[in-house]
Write a structure and sequence with these properties.
single chain, 291 residues, five-stranded parallel sheet, elongated
Amino acid sequence: MIIIRDKPGQLCNRLWSYSFFIAYGLENDVKVYVPNFKEYESLFENLDKFPKIRFQLSNNRLLEKSIRFCALTIYLFQKIKLGFIFRIFDIHFPHRNVLNNPFFQEKSIVFINSWKHQKDVDAIVKHKSAILDLFTPKKEFRDKPNALIAELRLRYDILVGVHIRRGDYLNFKDGIYYYEDNVYQKYMMRISNQLAGKRVGFFVSSNSTINYSEYEGLQVHQLEDAKGIEDLYALSMCDYIMGPPSTFSMWASFYGSVPLKILYSENTQFVINDFSIIRYQNCFENGKKLE
């Protein structure tokens, strides 16, 4: 069994981080236990789809907490050199011959720091449909996005999703990806001009309030009182997505197979052909990688 022991960041960091190892488990028929997804489990409807991929080992809350406590205790014992039953693969997991590694076979529990470890990109590409099925939002979180996108499809030929990341991006990397409204308005006008002759609408996903007056000349729409999962799902139904570097927009591109353009600065240059679907985290189908 693989136990994923870390909880990197917010929802999409964890979706990406855990999915590589879930795909590895599906490919190699290995059990995978993901104990640190508790605050997001209620968002998804198929987390129990695969018997060997477990987000909880018991329906009894007290028993589940006890299992997690025991797992943590074993891990800590190993770290302080008191454990002699289990081994942590900390550097080069997964790799092609891991199941042929005799230590892996003998020691049935392996603790993984999913964010820092080498990723099995072949497995996530192969098992993409299973990953997307596993992380399908519940109907209650799909209904509002479905209704809005269906309405917008009647009004526009092309729907562009714009991820306006504020909040934590004010301080992340000294705010280099924190763009003001005029920057996004410039980018939106650029893509609108490149799609001249088409009715272009914009769906905006943001963790802050949008001032519509800053987007004059553009058809801009948002979900009212949207939860993050609803914004994420709506982005995945657009024709194009653009925004600053973020696992959020990358997951939307991956989930919906939507071409994405990363805006690395306030002066990023692009044409429509620069948009490309995310193949796996940080890697586009056109062969380019996140800078």
